Each structure stands twice: as C-alpha cells, then as structure tokens.
Amino acid sequence: xxxxxxxxxxxxxxxxxxxxxxxxxxxxxxxxxxxxxxxxxxxxxxxxxxxxxxxxxxxxxxxxxxxxxxxxxxxxxxxxxxxxxxxxxxxxxxxxxxxxxxxxxxxxxxxxxxxxxxxxxxxxxxxxxxxxxxxxxxxxxxxxxxxxxxxxxxxxxxxxxxxxxxxxxxxxxxxxxxxxxxxxxxxxxxxxxxxxxxxxxxxxxxxxxxxxxxxxxxxxxxxxxxxxxxxxxxxxxxxxxxxxxxxxxxxxxxxx
Length: 256
Fold this sequence. Notes:
- By secondary structure, the chain is α/β, with parallel strands linked by helices.
- It folds into two domains: 2-129, Response regulator (Rossmann fold); 143-255, Arc Repressor Mutant, subunit A, CATH 1.10.10.
- 56% of the residues lie in helices and 11% in strands.
- The chain contains eleven helices and five strands, in the order βαβαβαβαβααααααα.
- It has helices at residues 11-23, 36-46, 62-70, 88-96, 109-129, 143-153, 161-175, 183-195, 199-216, 219-226, 240-255, and strands spanning 2-7, 27-33, 50-54, 78-83, 101-104.
- Strands 2-1-3-4-5 form a five-stranded parallel sheet, sandwiched between helices.
- Strand 4 (78-83), helix 4 (88-96) and strand 5 form a beta-alpha-beta unit.
- The protein is elongated.
- Residues 127-139 have low confidence and may be disordered.
C-alpha cells in the first residue's frame, strides 16, 4: 500500500483528496495537515511514502516545508507540490528543494493518482539503483485547456451558454488586454458575432454563469481564484468584467 499524506489549507479539497485516495486499492491515507507546521509533524510522525503539499499555507508555506524536510536525512517521503499558480520561478524553487512533481490546480484526480503511483514506483527503483529519484514536472496545458479548467474549477457548468461564452471572453482578453475596458462596445459584440447571437444575450449568459457558480457553493475554488480568505463567506459576486479580468490575470501570472 502507498501511504499518502495530504497538506493543504483548503479543507474541502483535502476531503475530496481523501475520498479519492481511499477509493484506490493500492493507497491509504497516512495523515492530513492544514498548515505547514502540521505538515512537518505528519511527515515526521507518520513517515508517508508520498506527500501532497500545497505551496500557499499558513505558518509555513510549501517551499519552507520542502526545505525543512530536505535537511532531515531520515525522511524519505516523496513530495508532489499542488498549486494554483504556475510561476516559473516558484516551479524552479520547488524542484530545487526536492519536489518530485509540480501539479497545477485545478487538476484531474485520476491523473494525480497516476502521479502518486509514478513517484512511488520510481522511489522504489531508485532505492535499488542510485538512491536518488528523477524530478518530473507535470506537463503544461494549452491556454484553452487552462481556461476551461479554471472555469470548471469555480463551478460554471459546461451545459450552459455562459460556459462557452466565458471561455471565449477570457481568450479574447488574453489576446488583447484592452478589450477588458470595452466589454460592451467590443467584447460582447465580438462573442455575439462568433456565436450568431446578440451582445445583450452574451452579457446575460455570462452573468447567469457567474451567479450559478456562486450558488453552487464552490467557495474554496472561488476564494482561491480571487485571493479571498478560505475561512469566511464570499464577500460579493463580481461583475462580468471583473470575473473575466481575474481569470485573465491568473493565466498571465502563470505565463511569466
């Protein structure tokens, strides 16, 4: 059995990860943590074979946890970093500090389970061969895939028109950032032309998509996207342009 520990301050995500891990015949939960200090305690006490570690956490961030574990020679836990940000500098630091995988949120659960098995398998092989494990970084998605993943992550269902319109809106703003300042005169008409509808229907569909996402209660994902506290209620529903701008800014941050 692969003993897996999970460290993330998003308690809802931790519960989802626990559920998926426990469904695997070859895995079991070795412990959970919601901040960096707890993560260190879990690893030291339980000695899991794999740790899923969020980068942004209270008390100690993921990179600090990585550094501390790297200096403990009796710890053989392999670490998969989980983060909503794909900044290249952070990726390099995570790899430098000893991460085996670096996975962007939102992620496919089945792919993550496969990553856990890969890390564990290579760990066993490396103990026999060289005592080291090769570093891997999860493959970068295309821009369209990332847009789709983020929209799904916050809870916009794929069967409503606003889902497709939101993808197109973010894509257009990514191509021309000035469009975010002219949503009524340029952005909505451009989307309307492509989908043979009217700008007002595009605007209403986008608004409906945001309302649906908020009503579905994916508070952890929305707070993650907007940088709000995970421990409090969502402060407000953003305007169409604000939502599109936030998603676009997130994607630009990943490209830096």
